[in-house]
Design brief:
By secondary structure, the chain is of the alpha+beta class. The protein is 30% helix and 38% strand.
Length: 143
Amino acid sequence: MAVKSPTEQNKAVVTRFVEEVWENGNVDAIDTLFTEDSILHDPTEDVRGREAFKTYNERYLAAFPDLQYDIEDMIAEGDKVVFRARMRGTHEGEFMSFEPTGQRFDAEGIIIARIEDGMIAERWASYDALGMMRQLGILPDAP
């Protein structure tokens, strides 16, 4: 069996995160995928540490129980993995203090993950949060 390069190993960590946490709803997988002091830089908030990241993911999964999260492209170099992702779901639970609207959203984003000793240490997320809020009916469409 061929040994994976460090770049391929880093990509596998990110892929496992998406599959385990977002697709399967297994937030406990964060314990083995993220460093204890991991940081997420998100357009809506910074999330620090495994427990905070579990709570962050649980809120999304509760608000969008049919959430789909697909990696559409992935590039890696050194300790960084960059991927373009698409998220889709129906707003069926409270989200950012907004009551469920029953509306669907479809949003793309670019995420950069920094891998440290085989675990995600830091992530930067840039996605169409405004478009997502408009699709959910939380914010009005632009005039």
